[in-house]
Amino acid sequence: VPTDAPASVADLGEFGLIDRLAQTLGPSANPNLVIGIGDDAAAWLPSPRCMTVATTDALVAGVHFDLATTSWEDLGWKALAENISDVAAMGCRPRYALVALALPANAPVSGIEAFYRGMRACGERYGCSVIGGDVVRSGAFVIQVTLLGESLPMDAGPDRLLLERSRARDGDAIAVTGPLGGSTGGLRLLLGQATASEARVAEELMNAHRRPMPRVQEGLALVEAGVRCAMDVSDGLLADVGHICERSGVDADLDASRVPLYHGLEAVFGQEALRLALTGGEDYELVCAAPPETIARAGELLAERGLGPLSVIGSIVPRTGVEPRVRAFQSSGVPLDVTVGGWDHFHGG
Amino acid sequence: VPTDAPASVADLGEFGLIDRLAQTLGPSANPNLVIGIGDDAAAWLPSPRCMTVATTDALVAGVHFDLATTSWEDLGWKALAENISDVAAMGCRPRYALVALALPANAPVSGIEAFYRGMRACGERYGCSVIGGDVVRSGAFVIQVTLLGESLPMDAGPDRLLLERSRARDGDAIAVTGPLGGSTGGLRLLLGQATASEARVAEELMNAHRRPMPRVQEGLALVEAGVRCAMDVSDGLLADVGHICERSGVDADLDASRVPLYHGLEAVFGQEALRLALTGGEDYELVCAAPPETIARAGELLAERGLGPLSVIGSIVPRTGVEPRVRAFQSSGVPLDVTVGGWDHFHGG
């Protein structure tokens, strides 16, 4: 067994690998953490009066990511960012992550370490520490991240300081925290399916795909402003507004001309840009619904904090059928014919 | 798409599958749960003054389990039980579980539902609810469970009411909460590698493998009695005492004749029974270390509560070398020659 430069995780063994990864992560800066990596479980003191939130996501090589277009380090960032975004979409702060890796025996140690460096960079950006996990041998490479977060401290009243999918109501305005389509546009560039004339535009789009920025501060501000319904745009705007409609028992009408497009998207993709913004996934902006005056107040709070802008893109309307319906209207008033194309992991996406 | 009897998860789709699994689980009985399955994250109110603990485990088909010897329902029980045991080994109560499944598209819906029934049965036994998760398509079948638990309420003082691996000290007695070797003995029977003359003995051993019982009440009682060091016997007694020694900077001497053997183990396996008890994994008893008078008090508390017996099997001794050393002595005083054989997922176990 070589000790200075192990090539694969099989050279290092499970416990050797865990030691290295713990070193890569470094100690947690969170003073409430009591026990990190190395015991039967991690342990921490939750903040008083806060709710704890928890979410988990599994990523499979060849299905959810491709190391041909994503570096190990970016993959680490994305795996954590995707889960941080779910916590942001609850209006909560990310705190702790647990990471379970199912790895082929020939997985390169240098790659796994770069993956952990990427997670560490993302965690430091958002105040979130990797505090435990598991590594096991497997035929497939599967990454599984669990994220624990905390709500704002609860008031004395019964009001839940969370952003829930089920709380959209007829007459609510629908708004997004930032431009859409950047991640899917960047992926097209990375795959060589498109070219940008400006290098800086191409770089920004590819970065939107490689290092997405979850909207944690935006989610907290939405809750503070009184918004109670939101989710993150991970499957694509139309699909995700559909999820809100399904859980809330409503429909939604969107004004396509008001959907903010990622910088440079139109320059590169022309007329296709709108479709990318409506159906492309992994933008991790927040889409929310609330009475128009609440949305206005939220927009002001975001602006005060140097966040946003919060763009109103449509409204919640009563449910007309059994299935939720999300329509995107052109400025002519004619509904766009866009297939939702939300990602379904078994029907093939 | 058939709707009444879908054969595979591909027939049902991701969201159809999630709906079915949520129905299989039923509502949570935990009044502190605010949001369960269906939003970006689950949310709950942590108990005042309790620490939160979190652990995660990944199980890979063909590596950690085999559906030839384990039913889907037993697999669900075991996947949850294994994680509940880690929480028990911290001296905490299990509360919530998140389950991420990476599934081949041809995975049978009936099997996945049976898996969730098994998790539900185990969760109900231990007061723990599955509150969220993820299902994704994959070449390999990987089960990943994250368990959240709570410590006993903390006293005003700085004492951590947890069972930690790092707190064994020279002179401590080592004790286990129950008999060992049952799970690995049962597996041998299931694989046809051994036969039992008594059917009832065989059934008990196989049940020890199929439906292990984590020691949650025992862990809580150990903490209450003042014990602060323990872990669960998952890799095998010698390997797991080795983990405690490594983290605590000590060695351990065990008295092999005092290691309790699972009922019927000696009848079926003769002289090999002791080796199975010392090196067999997945028994999920707790092994703890504490000053002898604390262990005696813990034994009394367990007996009062109808738990235990707590068997003293050895003692912690000073570290002699760089690596931790765990020796098992025969009654003659001669050390047994037993390879630790702890499970290392990459070196091949």
Summarize the structure.
Chain A has 349 residues and is α+β, with helices and mostly antiparallel strands. Chain A has 11 helices and 12 strands.
Can you give a write-up of this model?
- The structure is a homodimer of 349-residue chains.
- Chain A is an alpha+beta fold.
- In chain A, the strands form 3 sheets. In chain A, strands 8-10-7-11-9-12 form a 6-stranded mixed sheet.
- In chain A, strand 1 and strand 2 form a beta hairpin.
- In chain A, helix 5 packs across helix 6 and helix 7 packs across helix 11.
- The N and C termini of chain A lie far apart (43 Å).
- In chain A, 54% of the residues are buried.
- The mean pLDDT of chain A is 92.
- At the A-B interface, helix 1, helix 2, strand 2, strand 3 and strand 4 of A face helix 1, helix 2, strand 2, strand 3 and strand 4 of B.
Oligomer: homodimer
N- to C-terminal distance of chain A? 43 Å
Category by helix and strand content of chain A: alpha+beta
Average pLDDT score of chain A: 92
Q: Note poorly predicted spans of chain A.
A: none
Strand order of the largest sheet of chain A: 8-10-7-11-9-12
Largest interface comes to: A-B, 76 and 76 residues
Biggest β-sheet strands, sense, barrel of chain A = 6 strands, mixed
